[in-house]
Design brief:
The chain is α+β, with helices and mostly antiparallel strands and 184 residues long. The protein has helices spanning 10-13, 18-25, 76-90, 106-114, 166-169; strands spanning 31-38, 41-50, 59-67, 96-102, 118-129, 132-142, 171-173.
Length: 184
């Protein structure tokens, strides 16, 4: 795990039990975790988390993006990212998807920009890694432009989305699904 690519630290995660990790895989009406696999081996993960507060339900965040170092530059990260964006586009009333990336992580920043994310801010000294402060760039992508009322619209159940690339097709939901995405 690249210590500069995540807000989590190995020291913290090493203390987790199997039950703690399993709870992170549980799907809810506002949280989805996707995995990319080569055969049965998990090679990448990403989460999409919708804000739960009424005044902020039009926003979601992409967090926890990780791709195994041997699988980078092979489309796995792009597949995971596009899978999360496609899920976000299914959610009624969702307008914006946000994420943060360490400013020095140029390859991740390039991926996010090519996927339509735009920088809207910078948080100085966002992370402290090995005694060194790192700044993060804050990015956003609009996923819904209309003002349609989606309150009563029935949304499809969370499912494997068929993408154009092989990497996207390898992505699937991790954990158990809690049913259809929340659409209010």
């Amino acid at each position: 795990m690249d210590p500069e690519a995540s807000g989590s630290s190995y020291t913290e995660l090493a203390k987790w039990s199997v039950k703690d990790f399993a709870s992170q895989l549980e799907q809810t009406r506002t949280k989805w975790k996707f995995g990319a696999f080569v055969g049965r081996r998990l090679v990448g993960v990403v989460s999409l988390i919708r804000d739960e507060r009424i005044k902020e339900r039009h926003k979601a965040a992409i967090v926890g993006m990780y791709v195994d170092s041997h699988m980078r530059r092979k489309g796995v990260g792009r597949g995971l990212l596009m899978h999360a964006i496609e899920m976000a586009q299914q959610l009624g009333g969702l307008r914006r998807v946000r994420l943060a990336v360490v400013e020095s992580n140029k390859s991740a920043l390039r991926l996010y920009r090519t996927a339509g994310f735009k920088v809207y801010g910078r948080e100085k000294e966002s992370l402290l890694v090995n005694g060194r402060f790192l700044s993060e760039l804050l990015l956003v992508r609009i996923v819904l432009r209309s003002r349609t009322n989606y309150r009563n619209r029935r949304m499809p159940q969370a499912r494997l989305l068929r993408g154009r690339s092989r990497a996207t097709r390898r992505c699937r939901l991790l954990g158990r699904s809690a049913g259809r995405p929340d659409d209010t």
